[in-house]
Amino acid sequence: MSAINGIFERRGAVFSKAAFSASLDALNSYGNKASRHWLSSSVGLGYQNTTLWDTDRFENLPYFNPAARLAITVDARIDNHAELCDTLSVPSSERKNLPDSRLILLAWRKWELDCPRHLIGDYVFAVWDEKRQTLFCARDHIGARPFYYSLTPERFSFASDIKGVLAIPGVSNQLDEDFVTASLADKRFYRKDRTYFAEIRRLPPGHTLTVQAQTDRLEQYWFPENVKEVRFAKDADYAEAARDIYERAVADRLRTAEKVGVHLSGGLDSSSVTVLAARERRRQNLSAPVVLSWQPPPDPADGSKLASREHAQIKAVCEQENLVPLYCPMNAEDILSILKKDPTREPIHITLLSENTIQREASKRSVRLVLSGWGGDEGLSFDGRGYYAELLLRGRWWRLFRESRKFGSALRFIGKEALLLSFPDRNEALKKLSTRSLKAGTGAKSFIRAELHKQVKSHKIPCRQSSIRSTLTWLSTRGMLAERMESWAAHGALLKIQYAYPLSDRRLMEF
Question: Are residues 176 and 90 part of one domain?
């Protein structure tokens, strides 16, 4: 993936080219072409260039429009290109060669602070408005592109990688002790806006940040809970509409002639991504995707039903689409290489223990883009949590009674649902109701000392899961997908590998 960075001297201090260069140099692993920059008296914007998408060859970033006095740096793949061109009245003769950066700049000129609401795709960008002395930054709805920043009264600095911010002289590397303690105490801990460093923040997914000399404003622009409900007459109509969006989401992420890989675990999400990606590549007369699986190779002596079932599903998908699976199980060497890394500077999600092997094998085969099924559980293949609570709260008791009988005693099941709804968070309630969890939660297996447990603050976003819609909203906005994506992006960049997530497509998630 490409990377961006920037510095804004908010109090009129002399712009330090050395500080800017140190930040840009820290991002060298992201580019496969030369780095570039644009500098003014108080602002510098940088770009580490990676050519991957079909419109990248038209990019010349950072870009400055002298007539409008606007500058932009961006790492993006904009998927609603045609629709935006129609809305923004871009002449037909200019559309084919119009890079995403110019399209975003046109959107900024029309909608200004609201422009991200109209952009579909994976992106981070920064627009410097010289007339208003304003730096506007935005991150895509789900956080597929990382964005870190440091904001003080004197200076605002940002980069696609946390190392790009830390490299700037004057940015403190003092640890955020509350964040460190919480992350050690809870393996599921994650904060959308915080990092291990007290002075460095994340721009949360679906948010913008507007910085001026005296003010700064962080705002959310994506609100999945406000998306209008879709209504069709038949179940088949929903399936057909979902498939149309899904196929387009995959196709939009395959606008490249570079070698492509796909994850395949045998599950619903990865299998569907693999099938659609293989068919789209055939349609484009391009090479078939490299099929990458975390699974070990099939072992005839393994009597595990789960393993044999997943291998059978992988085999079925590959035989259907004429693909060859590449099994890449984790190994001790790859695990140790991850454990030796500094997680404060290189974000490490637990899945990286497996994905590290995938990245190494993909790099050997010159794979530049990997499609993953992350996001399916939070969208298209969601399991329906909140359904029974919704029936209960809406007074649809007879239907709830009939459906809950499959769990044994219907009255006992309904009683438990009612009890869980009395808690602000269902997951925490289930732990409290489990004697086993209470015994295991004493702190004996924690990474931190028992006396520090009382100091750990809760950073979790609670969810009663009182309806399907509220649960989906919680899943898509709590930041867990972004955590994985940040980790894979940072480590994939070292091998010139970029990730794309069709099931996290905004159009599909909103549907």
Answer: yes
